[in-house]
Amino acid sequence: MILYDVICSNDHVFEAWFADSGAFGEQREKGDIACPICGDTDVGKALMAPSISAKKERSAAQATEAAEAVKVLYKMREHIEEHCDYVGDKFAEEARKIHHEEVEKRDIYGEATAEEAARLRDEGIEFGEMPWPIRHDA
Question: Which domain holds residue 103?
Answer without folding.
Answer: 72-122
